[in-house]
Amino acid sequence: MPGNRTMLGTEQLGWVADFGATVISVDYRVSPENPYPAPLEDCFAGLEWTAGHAAEIGIDPDRLILAGVSGGGGLAASTGLLNRDRRAVALTHQILVCPMLDDREITVSSKFEGVVWDRASNRAGWTALLGEARGGPFVDGYGAAARATDLSGLPSTYLDTGSAEVFRDEIMDYATRLAIAGVPIELHVWSGAMHGSERMAPDVEVTRAAVAARRSFVARALRPRT
To answer: Residue 168, CB half-sphere, CA atoms under 13 Å: how many?
Structure first.
């Protein structure tokens, strides 16, 4: 699970308690001290390690789910692409929670101001990761998943976003392109929700609905095969 350290919280511990899941969080190197591709390679190494040590840690190597939130959601998406192209690990599902996918600022929502994670914050984040390459012609899908031109062969994917966040349009576009490429998707756009609702407004109805939807997806992903 590449993601912000905050993602390994009550929700993910619930997956452990309710489904017997094993959650592994990758403590990847962070930018700008360690720019791309260091964080991505760390996430990929964590995925490979998990698959390679499945017997040791008591998990089923044929039922691996990749997950991440926000910047970590973007890394999870890019890790999925890198894993597919390197033909490394058999993933069944990926969960991309309000993922940071596109460095180009080409959508309507990418220009939002006055929201929790606004246009200026987004630009600073991408610059920290990609440096001067941000927004330019030489970034590929490993650097920013929305840049990938081929989304085929990826695992079943859950995506969600709030309607009031910078990432809204790029997530919707990515989900559409996944579906066109033949990837099973589940997409939720939560009306009125903001980036980081789980931490800042955990008890409001829309947040509880989002958490329940993710829980349902995990339950179905981990359902015993018949």
So the answer is: 22
Instruction: Single out the residue of 104, 123, 31, 33 nearest to residue 72, CA to CA.
Output: 31
Domains (ranges, CATH) in the chain?
A: 1-61+73-156+174-181+214-226 (3.40.50.1820)
Q: Which residue has the tokens 């690990």?
A: 89
d(CA 95, CA 160): 9
Say how far apart CA 109 and CA 200 lie, in whole Å.
21
Q: Which residue bears the tokens 């360690």?
A: 34
The CA distance from 60 to 105, in Å, is 40
Residue in 139, 114, 111, 115 with CA at minimum distance from that of residue 123: 111
pLDDT for the residue numbered 99:
97
The pLDDT value given to residue 9: 66
CB 68 within 8 A of CB 7: yes
Chunked mean pLDDT (size 10), the chain, 226 residues: 51 87 94 98 97 95 94 97 97 97 98 95 98 98 98 98 97 98 98 90 94 96 79
pLDDT at 198: 85
Task: Single out the residue of 32, 220, 226 nearest to residue 127, CA to CA.
Answer: 32
Over 7-43, what HEC string results? Answer: HCCHHHHHHHHHHCCCCCCECCCCCCCCCCCHHHHHH
